[in-house]
Amino acid sequence: MAVVLVLVLIVVGSVLFHFLSPWWWTPIASNWDYIDHTIIISFWITGIVFAAVVLFMAYCVFRFRHREGNRAAYEPENKRLEWWLMVVTAAGVTALLVPGLFVWSRFVTVPSDATEIEVVAQQWQWSFRLPGKDGKLGTSDTRDVTADNPLGVAPKDPNGQDDVLVEAADLHLPVGKPVKVLLRSIDVLHDFYIPEFRAKMDMIPGSVTYFWFTPIRTGTFQVLCAELCGQGHPLMHGVVMVDTEQDYLAWLGQQQTFAQLSAPQQSGSANSLPGEAIASNLGVAANSKLSRSAQ
Amino acid sequence: MSVILVFLLVVAGFAGWWLSHQRLTAKPWLEQGLAEEFVGLGRSALPTAKIGLGVFLAVVGCLFSLFVSAYFMRMGLSDWRPLPLPRLLWLNTGVLVLSSVALQCAVVAARRGQMDMVRLGLATAGLTALAFLAGQLVAWRQLTEDGYLLASNPANSFFYLITAMHGLHILGGLVGLGRTSAGAWNGARPERLRLSVELCAMYWHFLLFVWLCIFAVLAGWAATFVSICQRLLT
Amino acid sequence: MVDVTPADAVPPAEVGEMELYHPHSWWTKYVFSQDAKVIAVQYSATATAIGLVALVLSWLMRLQLGFPGTFDFITPEAYYQFITMHGMIMVIYLLTALFLGGFGNYLIPLMVGARDMVFPYVNMLSYWIYLLAVLVLVSSFFAPGGPTGAGWTLYPPQAIMTGTPGGQDWGIILMLSSLILFIIGFTMGGLNYVVTVLQGRTRGMTLMRLPLTVWGIFTATVMALLAFPALFVACVMMLLDRVLGTSFFMPAIVEMGEQLQHNGGSPILFQHLFWFFGHPEVYIVALPAFGIVSDLISTHARKNIFGYRMMVWAIIAIGALSFVVWAHHMYVSGMHPYFGFFFATTTLIIAIPTAIKVYNWVLTLWRGDIHLTVPMLFALAFIVTFVNGGLTGLFLGNVVVDVPLSDTMFVVAHFHMVMGVAPILVIFGAIYHWYPKVTGRMLNEALGKFHFWVTFLGAYLIFFPMHYLGLMGIPRRYAELTDMTIMTESARHLNSFISIMAFVVGFAQLVFLFNLIWSIRHGREAGGNPWRATTLEWQTPQTPPAHGNFGKELPIVYRWAYDYSVPGAKEDFIPQNVPGDFAPSREPA
Q: At A127, phi and psi to the nearest 5?
């Protein structure tokens, strides 16, 4: 009898846990509430199936447990019942799949007015590149990566000269504007992941992947790496700030372009440090943090 | 991954054909007794060892299909520079064909009980297989001397890798052939020897077939063939 | 492979005696034995031993996650080595080896009515190569740089780079070599399992009279034979990339400011090969569990398995479908997004035959005569955990739902529930069930029940709440959960709770081990057929079965494996080798 009780408790406990748990998704900050809705649909359908199967099992154990003189019924199969169950299951699966595929087709169809921005990952930091006045990102290649050109922007490409580089620092985005995030890595696999935006995608060295979203509220969001990328993986944090249009433009005005950064240092002023120095400083910081925790 | 999927489709076809003869729709609870009336539901009349070898060859086929799948996927990337195949490979192919023919002769001879011919066939097959392996090594040397090193281009890497895998399988076959030959010279039971020779021949023919396929792939004919098919379809 | 021992041709439907190898000394009887039963015990013991190592590794990583900063010796490097070795050992060296090498070797010949496997010598080699693979794996713990920390998926490029523990040391080389050895050894064993089912069946044993255990192991082995080559290819190519500097998987890379020699390779190619093996692997573990649990439920509920034919078809359908769903592990890998439509659809279709199996298990309980023995308890617990884990699989298989959840703790919870906890519960149930046949004695029931309750409830309490950490967005494979804005205080407490439960469940396994050893000598005498089961392994003249399994005459099979509670029959079970029809009317009224 303990079994029956425990089986019922598992169902009741799991359902209560689901509704009372303080552990739930973060408040959404992008247009992908569709995904959240699909998850809710999935929870309802699978939750009902789970409760039904386990409770039915509990009832069977209660009703048909062995007692002296009991004998099991003889029933090799029941075609009709099995077909019915199959049809109901197929219906349930369709109810999960159709909204899922519908939302997926939105997810992979980038709106034409989306601004392209680029995220470049390396062990273990994030850098960003925004198109300059021409609205186009220049081409890039891992082979072009040098100390003075840590993102590997093609030095000859005229489209790339006015690109805004944000090396190992925070990215700002204007609220309400769709962005197509191009993802690139110069060493291993990484994954650009902001829990509040729901979307994520791996970055693969040697190719460019993408996803798109529209930030719907201002705020500061933490970037996490979601694909194991070596021992610094858990420390590979970044920051994306979603600003109002005004704040965004103010921030953009302070950023430097590829041409400015790669020009020979004429002024030698403190705030035009070459990108590599910033990057390596941060690299050292990450490394020293690692070795500290290793001690 | 299309090559491996096609291969698996063939395997699934075989499995489906076999299963369709096993009365999978029977209601077993209604059938008591020896099931004698359902002839063919027991074990196959083929020798167990042949079935075992057949299953193993399916695994080998799977392995090479996967290599070829990987080859085609990697080929699509920009840094691929096809390498010129040494003309020696044609000679090697001929030698391997000869090896298969010799084993087939040994099979025929074993069925007729002509021991001398069996021994001759086995010896020829063994020597030609060794000659094939030596020829492959010479082909490697030629390529290396011409500067087509293993790591300098993925086309080269695949060439060395796939030919090496095929060579290793031939080498493994030679172990089996050696045991069969030992039996042929030390007077093994005729029916046992016949089975061993047949198993060797089966393995040899399969590896010849694999070689012809990978030769076609490495020479680029397979890719041309596929693109022609695609053009015809569209 | 041509040097297999050839058996002479036999006419159809007539089973001649096979040439049986007879051991001549203690060494050939117990060590280099060609008897499948001894090989089975060797496989099981080795798998259990290495599995205990993996269990300890899981404790160590739970220490780090539950009590961050408390244990200084668990550095990020060490943490990644622990998770990698834990995952790889559990999936390959424990579950695959135990289900196929252990249960397959023991049960296939006995259940189909054969004296032994068809190629006993190759079967023996299979075990010794497996042992070698395990030893190579273990040796990486002692190699300079330690074992690899690339995660069990071993994704390049990081798996062979300096930023990953063991990447430029011996770790990854030993891991890849060990896998290659394992695959070679497995192929040898797998040939035996398949061909024994094809050719070793005794007279009257048609396919539709096979117990579902054999169906499950047989189908899983066929799948494994076709899927493992993909891992083999991936391992060989990565080994060449690592050792000889080729560029199969390695693109142009700048590592710590330095350009590497590699160029143009495709990391995605590795992922395709890996998951082409990796997804069937899930079912390679699951199908034997499905089969075994069907037999446990039927025997202990004294009722035929409900819908036997549907169960067989479902096994075949799952086996076939599992080869066209692999890329659902790669929805966010950056592969072409349109693949998502195809793979989400195939993945959710595979849920249908799987659901059918679940329904048939619970419908077998309906109007049964349920004996709540320890094996039955484990079978019931399997259904709970499998349904739970299977349903969360519908989340992850549904491409767009996978986007926020992939690479989070939700995934960890899902696959532990569905292919960790659930199959392990079946393994426990199966051990309690067949231990009397292997040793002649029963396992202690009180200890068994204690083991059951702690394992089942503990495991559920570990993995059910873990899903919600994933829902919060907490990523998996994080050695430290510090400095994260989404991490709350309560989530930290939950992590500590999970870690404590992991220790509790782990220690319960020690009770089980004690029971295993203690009962060999002190368990209650079991007799030949303590569960009153119908299948052939319970009808052997000796218990434990002697060399050759069935004495002088092989059994002849007259009926299917599930004649329980047949109306009109005196006993509530009729063994498969008993002739005669006891049932005047077999169609249910």
A: -130, 165
Q: What is the 3-class SS of C192-219, one letter each residue?
A: HHHHHHHHCCCCCCCHHHCCHHHHHHHH
Strand partners, C526: none
Kindly report the length of chain B. Answer: 234
Q: Is the pLDDT of residue B201 over 60?
A: yes
Give the dihedral sign, CA C217/C219/C225/C230: negative
In the block, tokens 């491409």 appear at C399
Non-local (6+) Cβ contacts of C245 within 8 A are B151, C261, C262
Domain that holds residue A181: 115-264+274-294
Express each pLDDT in C127-176 by its tens digit.
Answer: 999 999 999 999 999 999 999 999 999 999 999 999 899 988 999 999 99
Q: Are A140 and A257 in the same domain?
A: yes
Residue B105, domain member (yes or no): yes
Give me the amino acid identity at A256: Q
Q: How far is A148 from chain C (nearest CA, A)?
A: 10
Domain stops at, among A88, A108, A128: A108
Question: Looking at the complex, does the CB of residue B189 fall below 8 Å from at least one CB of chain C?
Answer: no
On whether residue B140 sits in a domain, the answer given is: yes
Question: What CATH number is attached to the domain comprising B228?
Answer: 1.20.120.80
User: How far, in Å, CA of C299 to CA of C369, rounded?
Assistant: 10
Q: List the single residue in A with minimal CA-CA distance to B79.
A: A206
pLDDT tens readout for residues C254-297: 988 888 888 889 999 999 999 999 999 999 999 999 999 999 99
Yes or no, beta carbons of C477 and A82 under 8 Å apart = no
Mean pLDDT confidence for C472-496: 91
Answer with the residue of higher pLDDT: A281 or C379: C379
> Does any domain span residue B55?
no
Residues A123 and A162 in one domain: yes
Same domain? For A86 and A54 the reply is yes
Residue B163: other Cβ atoms inside 10 A: 21
Contact, C378 vs C421, CB < 8 A?
Answer: no
Distance of alpha carbon C64 from alpha carbon C61, whole angstroms: 5
Q: What pLDDT shows up at residue B42? A: 67
Residue of chain C minimizing CA distance to B198: C2
Residue B78: predicted pLDDT = 85
Residues of chain B found within 8 Å of residue A207, distances taken between Cβ atoms: none
Which residues contact residue A254 at a Cβ distance below 8 angstroms, ignoring those fewer than 6 apart? none
Rounded to an integer, what distance in angstroms lies between the CA atom of residue B88 and that of residue B139?
6
Cβ–Cβ below 8 Å for C203 and B175: no
Q: Does any CB of chain C come closer than 8 Å to the CB of residue B149?
A: no
Give the separation between CA A290 and CA C76, rounded to whole angstroms: 8
A269 in a domain, yes or no?
no
Pick the CATH number of C34-249+264-539 from 1.20.210.10, 1.10.600.10, 2.60.40.420, 3.20.20.70: 1.20.210.10
**Residue A269 CB contacts under 8 Å (≥ 6 apart), including other chains:** none
Domain range for residue B91?
Answer: 85-233
Residue type, C172: I
> Does the structure show a pLDDT above 90 at A178?
yes
Domain boundary among A53, A87, A108: A108
The DSSP line for chain A is -HHHHHHHHHHHHHHHHHHH-S--PPPP-BSTHHHHHHHHHHHHHHHHHHHHHHHHHHHHHHHHB--TT---------HHHHHHHHHHHHHHHHHHHHHHHHHHHHHHS--TTPEEEEEEEETTEEEEEE--TTS-PPPB-GGG--SS-TT-B-TT-GGGTT-EEE-SS-EEEETT--EEEEEEESSS-EEEE-GGG--EEEE-BTS-EEEEE-B-S-EEEEEEE-S--STTGGG--EEEEEE-HHHHHHHHHT-EEHHHHHS--SS--GGG--HHHHHHHHHHHHHHHHHHHH-
Contact C222 B40 (CB under 8 A): no
